[in-house]
Amino acid sequence: MSAELHFHSIAEAAAQLEAKTLSAVELTQAVIARTKAVEPRVRAFLSTDEATALAQAAASDARRAAGHARGPLDGIPVGLKDVIAVKNQPLTAGSRMLANFVSPYDSTAAAKLQQAGAVLWGRLNCDEFAMGSSNENSAFHPTGNPWDVSRVPGGSSGGSAAALAAGEALATLGSDTGGSIRQPAALCGVVGIKPTYGLVSRYGLIAYASSLDQIGPFARTVEDAAIVLRAIAGHDERDSTSFRTEIPDYRAELQTRRGPWKLGLPKEYFGEGLDPEIAAAVERAIAFYKAQGCEIREVSLPHTQYCLDTYYIIATAEASSNLARYDGVRYGHRAKNAKDIVDLYFQSRAEGFGAEVKRRIILGTYVLSSGYYDAFYLRAQKVRTLIRQDFLNAYKEVDALLTPTSPIPAFKLGEKSDPLAMYLCDIYTIGVNLAGLPAISVPCGFTRGNLPIGLQLIGQPFQEASLLALAHSYDRAHDWSSRHPKL
Amino acid sequence: MNYEAVIGLEVHVQIKTRSKVFTRVGAGYGHEPNTLTDPVVLGLPGALPVMNKAALDAIIKAGLLLGCEIAPVCKWDRKNYFYPDSPKNYQISQYDQPICLGGAVEIELPGSARNVMGEHKRIPLTRIHLEEDVGKLNHGATDSLVDYNRAGTPLMEIVSDPAMHTADEAFAYLTSLRATMIYGGISDCDMEKGQLRCDANISIRPVGEKRLGTKVELKNLNSISFVRDGIAHEIKRQIGVLERGGTIVQETRDYDGMTGTSQSLRSKEEAHDYRYFPDPDLMPVVVDVAWKDRIRAECPELPFDKQRRFLAEYQLPYTLTSVLVWDRALADYFEEAAKLAGAGKAQAVGNWITNDLLRELGGARLTVAEARVRPGHIAALVQLVDSGVVLTNAAKEIFVEMFATGDQPGVIAERRGLKAAPTDAGELEQWCRDAIATNAKALAEFKAGKDSAINAFKGPVMKAAKGKANPKLVDETLRRLLAAM
């Protein structure tokens, strides 16, 4: 157990709240104080609203006093990536385009967290419109990795991972389109889940690539992640792509699902470009599972080499259309002194969007253009089917796949100026999004330079309960999550 | 040289649903600007569309009424283009898998005279698809304002084959299509409210030529007569261009119905690349047999089918049917009245409805449904006249009062003393004898075989009866007396 309140797990804090040895206001005040202390170095937040958070905490205490506590999240401070809408809170997507935008409505995920009693604490930095792997594409400021603030926290949900690792929240939400939860989770030493496509409603999530985007939790432990995931998952009639499925009590299932599991090691995920220290840490995790009686075998995902290309066609195509609405007409940044409507579009978008967003809009517009659609977009969709089929074939032999989350640990701010080099950060995470599968990144050690390493476990569609149990069996046997960065 | 025009129409019809096509907010016309909006309609960050099933029901109904094949699976695509009336800068539409394929619109061309049925044709359809309507721009002197109330209203696009050749055919097509949509309760098709909008693709070619000429798209044909005038004008314009030795340029032209002129909006080179792709926010729609059957059960008989049945079943003259069948409520009203009146009285019922009822409704600015005169009133009135209880002139008076008060015709006849006199048989016979005795000329003519000579006796009899004698009884009595002479 952590002595410092701001490093409590949800499970620890919930037990104390229930025992009334701790109040939600005390806990929230501790998190606010910690945020004030470390934020000048971490810079994980884009905005905070102390008064609202404390009011929500007080309301939680009042509920509990009246005997109406709502479960393990009641009174727990949770931060949200600034792409997830909360009514009357800023919603910037890390972009100048939405610098002054305040959402008039709640996303389903935020509404569900509030129904579960969570205290919403702050808006978390991210790469602009969730496009990036380092948080350096935020229009406002970069975020530092709490383990070494001269390094990146990963991205695009870098603020969510960094805030949690730094003790500025007890859990956070991010979104994952090509690895945007798992990669920063790995780089910051926390747990991060990308749920099956369709498990968590996307209503109120600023769309980057609609067929790939999923909201998911960051947490200190797999058990905490199970608590948050259960609160936000489930069918939503406002999202046509959300799936009708029963949501089990993931936390309870952690105890009942004990394996042993058959685990597959996709050979394509252990090749060139993998940092040797990460490879060694993952090998130790494999050895752990073997010792637990799991059967480990090599499998092949033969279309892996096409994942990056496929992703950058489909994601940018969808993005080019999704981001068309930011035009300066109804809300968001509007250029001054535009001559006419076309000029207004050009200037507002030229001023409002950053370089990476523009790059992806141009790429996406190109692949959808008449004459290129069949060669790029249509073909990418076919390859996407093959990639998904690779995974489903592997699941005929094994229960889950085990891989590194990121080929490299946290790199220096400004180190990767070549976009292609940056895109390679997501090489092990992108296939999961294209296949729509659930995957989790769990801390599995540190480099000699004391940078966190993440282990990725990839599950079967809507089998989050099994995936969490598999990850939990590793997590509870190791103490990685009890280590905290010195800030 | 003789030219033939080839015309295809793209008609947009707003579907009459309570809420918009991809969200719960209400749909409607004439509200305060930007009040029928929500995060989805305004395209706010994070908002997602969800299909309104009522709009799908309506378009399936339209497809079934027009004999289209209903696709077992259809999907949604994004049509990408920037314009301020489009909140997301893409429109959700259907590109390569529309919900309705094929089908046809039956049309009737003008007959040789008003009372002669014209030629019927079937204009084949290419497709019908569903999409969302856009908002409305209001241009001021120094700025432009956007009203998004209309944005997101369900809109059908009905595309005909290039199979029409005259402005009259296009006019008939639109008239028939509009009636079909109104019949099906799919849309009110009020063109002034933009509920029906029409673009025309027009080309010309020398008669006998099989290949199509270069087409021009004509936009803003915002009334049915503008459609006819605009097309006629465009055909003339194209022939003029060719006859002056010019060539037709593929372009979009804007027709101004007020001045009867058109001008170029954009050429082919300036055409948009809409970058269609499947909308990842929406799932494909599967229309199964049960769904289609449920909608089929709600499909009404179409106007031309009804007209054929009225002609055969009620032996109505063409002119009456062509007034009755185009308004579904009026046709239903007629059928109910005809059934209540009994066999052989359909034409009389039809006459009362198309002459007196429509005249009174027009004067009072009421619809058929609002009329206090119900089909039972008409049937009762027809029976009163037929049985001689009420005479035609009196019946006209009764109708007007019946329309105003909703009272039954028998009650009004009683109250106003408008019943034919309950004639004493002896008195009537005496009046008849007197009439015959004072007109020897007519008597001679009748005896000589001229049947119509009998009418000469009727006037004096009616006069003696102060107009209240039963004409049928007068006729019978005269004939009996004449036969005995």
Shape of chain A: globular
The proportion of strand residues of chain A reads 5-15%
CATH class of the largest domain in chain A: Alpha Beta
Query: Radius of gyration of chain B, Cα only, in angstroms?
Result: 30 Å
Provide the spatial order of strands within the biggest beta sheet of chain A: 1-3-2-4-6-5-10-11-9-7-8
Shape designation of chain B: elongated
CATH homology superfamily of the largest domain in chain A: Amidase signature (AS) domain
- Biggest beta-sheet profile of chain B: 10 strands, mixed
Question: Would you write up a description of this structure?
Answer:
The complex is a heterodimer of chains A (487) and B (485). Chain A is of the alpha/beta class. Chain A folds into two domains: 5-264 and 397-482, Alpha-Beta Complex (Amidase signature (AS) enzymes), CATH 3.90.1300.10; 305-382, no CATH class. In chain A, 38% of the residues lie in helices and 12% in strands. Chain A has an eleven-stranded mixed sheet, with helices on both faces. In chain A, a hairpin with a 5-residue loop joins strand 10 and strand 11. In chain A, 61% of the residues are buried. The model of chain A has no long low-confidence stretch (mean pLDDT 97). With 485 residues, chain B is of the alpha+beta class. Helices cover 39% and strands 19% of the residues of chain B. Chain B has helices spanning 53-65, 167-183, 224-243, 289-296, 303-313, 318-324, 328-341, 346-364, 375-386, 392-405, 409-416, 425-437, 440-447, 455-464, 471-483; strands at 3-14, 69-70, 73-74, 77-80, 90-93, 100-101, 104-108, 120-132, 136-139, 144-147, 154-160, 196-206, 216-221, 251-256, 261-267, 277-278, 285-286. The model of chain B has no long low-confidence stretch (mean pLDDT 93). Classes of the chains: A alpha/beta (487), B alpha+beta (485). At the A-B interface, helix 10 and helix 11 of A face loops of B.
